[in-house]
Amino acid sequence: MAQSHPHVLFVALATHGHFNPGLHLANTLSHGGVNVTFATSSSVRHRLPKLPSSPNLSFSFFSDGQDDGFKLGNDVVPFLSQFERQASIAIRQTILKSKANGKPFSFVVYSLLTPWMAEVARSFHLPSALFWNQSAAVFAIYYHFFNGYKDIIGNAFAHPCIKIHLPGLPLLDSKQLPSLCNPANSNSFVLKLYETHFHVIKQEPHLKILINTFDDLEHDVLRAISVELIPIGPVLPSLSFFHPTNSMDLKPYIGWLNSKPKSSVVYVSFGSIAAVSTAQLEEIARGLLDSKLPFLWVMRKRSDGDEGDLVSCREELEGKGKIVTWCSQLEVLLHPSIGCFLTHCGWNSSLESIACGVSVVAFPQWTDQSTNARIIEESSKSGVRLRMNDDGIVERGEIKKCLDLVMGDGVEGESLRRNALKWKELANHATTKGGSSNVNVSSFLDFVCNGGNR
């Protein structure tokens, strides 16, 4: 029976790549007429300068014993295992407390790497849905990996020169597969979390799987497997939040960008988790200097808090570009002075580049990023991928070459920029009224309001 006042519990992992899209999806659902409580570690509250404001959106922050959050250099395994232990207890208490206060939950949405939430939801007889905040291509690869193709995928890593065929996917080599599928992968704990997700999907074949992509971008992949995937992306903050009447000009890096010509600046950022070696940072720095292009570089501090010695040419860099330890990425990508994005190709960053119409120089590091780089280079054709040398380093000459190509006036650079603008329009259309993702969100809200009944 349908509930008159649906109340959704949305649980997200406390890392930027998970809580950011989760929070924005929770906000979207709350504006669709349901009450949503967003639950995650209190470390998130400390890191967010601003929370979305909606009368139907509330927050439940809990301590997971790691209130400073995940930091560069931390081991991801103890972080994830501690989050699971503490969060599963806190979430159960939240469900009981909400019921005691006369505001019982009627539905649960949980994000990637929290598969244990499926059992928590079942124990309270609550219907649930998974929010897969990676691409459909990555979902399909893991699906095949855990359903009979593990050895074939492993063979691709053993023989890097070969390409493998997985049903419904283009030919792939080891440089286009998630690094967790590599038999030499040391993050077996993380891979086990993915495996548990697919075990849950097998147990619950009608589980709703909301996926942060859109139909035009991954049309064929979305239909390539027997599991129903519901594309609802790109899941981003409302672009109206970044209207120039806000406090953009008060931020020093925005003032610096305002002083630069249109499409002249390289934006450089490698996310919040992946650690780039000192030797590689030096090559990036020299490649940027050799390109003679202005740049905005988010250079994060090391775990000891010191960033001054990361590169030997810091003074030269600051004479040509601007270095910051943090910025509002979507705000930067929307700035007219940005000409390209040198990125690790985390899925959020990849989607933001597409939604903002910015060409990419792809520098994937680990997990899903190599697959995302393939989407950028070969599907959307809005960027190029850097190639490593035999020592696993991308040299300065390669960086300069790719920046020159993407930012230059040549035929290939112009084609990349045209494609980037085309995908910007398609992404925007998907999330506006009547667009494919917008329709899917509306259908999901109807499903929730009907008590989670098919």
Q: How is this structure best described in words?
A:
The chain contains 16 helices and 13 strands. It is an alpha/beta fold and 454 residues long. It folds into two domains: 7-137 and 176-237 and 430-449, Glycogen Phosphorylase B (Rossmann fold, 3-Layer(aba) Sandwich), CATH 3.40.50; 245-429, Rossmann fold (3-Layer(aba) Sandwich). It is globular and about 65 Å long. The model is unreliable at 240-249 (pLDDT under 50). This is Mogroside I-E synthase.
Task: List descriptors.
single chain, about 450 residues, alpha/beta, Rossmann fold, 2 domains, seven-stranded parallel sheet, six-stranded parallel sheet, 16 helices, about 15% strand, globular, Mogroside I-E synthase
Quick summary of this structure?
With 454 residues, the protein is of the alpha/beta class. It has two domains: 7-137 and 176-237 and 430-449, Glycogen Phosphorylase B (Rossmann fold); 245-429, 3-Layer(aba) Sandwich (Rossmann fold), CATH 3.40.50.
Portion in helices: 40-55%
- Mean pLDDT value: 91
Spell the H/E element sequence: EHEHEHEHEHHEHEHEHEHEHEHEHEHHH
CATH superfamily of the largest domain: Glycogen Phosphorylase B
Q: How many angstroms separate the termini?
A: 11 Å
- Annotation field: number of helices: 16
Q: What proportion of the residues form beta strands (DSSP E)?
A: 5-15%
